[in-house]
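Practice problem: predict the structure.
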Amino acid sequence: MRLTIEDFCIRCGICVTLYPELYEMDFDEDMIRIKVNEISGALTAKARESVKDCAVAAIRLKKL
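Answer:
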C-alpha cells in the first residue's frame, strides 16, 4: 500500500505530530512529506489511523 496526500491538505501538522515515522514537515516547500514509500507490516495500522485522523481527509491509502 502507498500513502498519498491530496492538494487540499492544509498542513496543520496533525499527521506529523501523531505519526512521525510516516510524515515530516517540509518548511522550505510548505508541504508535508511522506517518509515511507511502501506501507507494510506494523506501519499498516498506523497508516490507516493517520487517514482517519486527518483534519480535512487529505490523506489516502491506496493499494499498489
